[in-house]
From TrEMBL:
Organism field: Ruminiclostridium sufflavum DSM 19573
Tagged with keyword rRNA-binding: no
Protein name, UniProt field: Tryptophan transporter TrpP
Membrane spanning residue stretches: 20-42, 49-73, 85-104, 116-141, 147-172
Cited Pfam families: TrpP
Keywords linked to the UniProt accession: Membrane, Transmembrane, Transmembrane helix
């Protein structure tokens, strides 16, 4: 009898379940942004950013996969009123930052700070990219509506805090429900 050898293929790309998870989370983000987002007045979470941050936390995509997730999120943002096309730049930047932060250790004992810190920083990256592109377009002569930078900065930081809270709350239950390994308390 010959010895049987089981070869395990190396993962190349996202699995079908990963793609479905990203799609479902982005869809949930869009629905929440449409229905729940309208209930907030000044400070409101950006549920689409929160959901792609959560997806990246759960599936740990490669760099190019994170870019694609960001582009999909930016395309989804085009459905909502606002400044067209800028999200096609700002959301991939936020997704790239989120994917890169996955490599930075952020644990205190068994408690992981990744959900809250990475989401906060990624939301800031997306927000500041958005405002930079918006003002660059404005000063280049494009017909875009702007508000004072101080107001934008307040909105960006408020959104980052709210997104961080949402992702922190959802991360452990989703990780456990999806069977993505032992979930650390955070």
């Amino acid at each position: 009898m010959e010895k049987r050898v089981v070869l395990k293929e190396k993962k190349s790309g996202l699995s079908i379940s990963d793609v479905i998870l990203v799609g479902v989370l982005l869809a949930v983000g869009a629905v929440l942004k449409f229905f729940v987002g309208s209930m907030f007045t000044v400070m409101k979470p950006n549920f689409i950013i929160a959901m792609y941050c959560l997806a990246i936390l759960l599936i740990r995509p490669k760099f190019i996969e994170a870019v694609i997730i960001g582009i999909l999120a930016g395309a989804l943002c085009q459905v909502f009123p606002g400044t067209p096309y800028i999200n096609l730049i700002s959301e991939p930047v936020g997704a790239i930052v989120m994917a890169l932060l996955m490599y930075v250790p952020m644990e205190i004992g068994r408690f992981s700070l990744k959900p809250v810190i990475c989401t906060f920083i990624s939301t800031l990256a997306s927000g500041f990219t958005f405002i930079s592109v918006l003002y660059a377009a404005f000063y280049a002569g494009a017909s875009v509506a702007t508000i004072p930078i101080g107001v934008f900065i307040t909105i960006i930081f408020g959104t980052a805090v709210l997104n961080s809270i949402i992702v922190q709350i959802l991360y452990i239950p989703l990780k456990l429900a999806l069977g993505r390994g032992e979930a650390k308390a955070g």
